[in-house]
Amino acid sequence: MTHYLEFEKPLAEIEGKAEELRALARANEEMDVEDEAAALDQKAADLLKDLYKGLTPWRKCQVARHPDRPHCLDYIEALFSEYTPLAGDRNFADDHAVMGGLARLDDRAVMVIGHEKGNDTKTRIERNFGMARPEGYRKAIRLMDIADRFGLPVITLVDTPGAYPGKGAEERGQSEAIARATEKCLSIGVPLIAVIVGEGGSGGAVAFATANRVAMLEHSIYSVISPEGCASILWKDAEKMREAAEALRLTAQDLSRLGVIDRIIPEPLGGAQRDRVATIANVGKAIGALLDDLSPKDRGALIKDRRKKFLAMGSKGLAA
Question: Is the pLDDT assigned to residue 320 strictly greater than 50?
Answer without folding.
Answer: no
